[in-house]
Design goal:
8 strands; binds 1,3-dihydroxyacetonephosphate; globular; 264 residues; TIM Barrel; eight-stranded parallel barrel; 12 helices
């Protein structure tokens, strides 16, 4: 299926710092079996997992060997390509492991690792250099929401992240209000739509109308199988970035099977 605007829905699971490579293999196996048992149509919704770096090779091997309908990516990358950057991981290495995507600018990196809009932009450009699709995370804290209102911070972060990106470059934007991450406090579908539309406007300013129409915009923050349908009904929400619920294969499969909840 596609959304009304022709964008393929995208359900992404950010494992954060959970699951070692053996646990990661077990989760991907269970997820793949659950989807298969449920008769999941692999063309209908794109599903991706974002394991820790140390799991990626194992996840790649499993997905390739069993031809599972799953994409994968990393949770971060270095803004640099190679050299004396102890502990950093180059986009080149991620591309060599078959990663399609890479998360950039997650709020846990912005707040916990001091990642500024400039760093996020440098990482986006690094991802693009290596043929990885950046999944750019934007979102406001509760204090920023009170001070600047809905959409202002996510729009400014989107513009900054896309500086210097050439039109025609595929990107994904994930709106994750910081106050909704891991808290059980979920944004309303209407708010997600309002911010999604504003983000699409920002993409249009930077990359043009065609790219804005093609760009998938996700909502993230306490997404579960019980609330996904409300978000997916919104014209400017094309999927979800799921944290906690992506660690439970049955629950994550339930989210990916949202078309059933929509009755389509
Ligand atoms: P939760 O789904 O656990 O709220 O996390 C959201 C998130 O941060 C995904 O990147």
């Amino acid at each position: 299926m596609t959304t009304d605007a022709g964008r393929r829905p995208f359900i992404a699971g950010n494992w954060k710092m959970n699951l070692d490579h053996l646990q990661g293999i077990a989760l991907v196996q269970k997820l793949a079996w659950t989807l298969k048992d449920a008769g999941f149509d692999r063309g209908s919704v794109e599903i991706a997992v974002f394991p820790p770096f140390t799991d990626i090779r194992s996840v790649q091997t499993l997905i390739d060997a069993d031809d599972h309908a799953l994409a994968y990516g990393a949770q971060d990358l270095s803004p640099h390509d190679s050299g004396a950057y102890t502990g950093d991981v180059s986009g080149q290495f991620l591309a060599a492991l078959g990663c399609t995507y890479v998360l950039i600018g997650h709020s846990e990196r912005r707040t916990g690792h001091g990642e500024t809009d400039e760093v996020v932009n440098a990482k986006v450009l690094a991802a693009v250099r290596h043929g990885l699709v950046p999944v750019i995370c934007v979102g406001e804290t509760e204090a920023e929401l009170e001070e600047h209102g809905t959409s202002a911070v996510p729009v400014a972060q989107t513009r900054a992240a896309l500086a210097g990106v050439a039109p025609g470059t595929p990107v994904v934007i994930a709106y994750e209000p910081v106050w909704a991450i891991g808290t059980g406090k979920v944004a309303t579908p209407e708010t997600a739509q309002q911010v999604g539309a504003a983000i699409r406007g920002a993409v249009q300013e930077v990359l043009g109308a065609d790219d804005a129409a093609a760009t998938r915009i996700l909502y993230g923050g306490s997404v579960k199988s019980g609330n996904i349908a409300g978000f997916m009904r919104q014209p400017d929400v094309d999927g979800a970035l799921v944290g906690g619920a992506s660690l439970d294969p049955a629950e994550f499969a339930g989210i990916a099977r949202f078309p059933q909840h929509l009755g389509v």
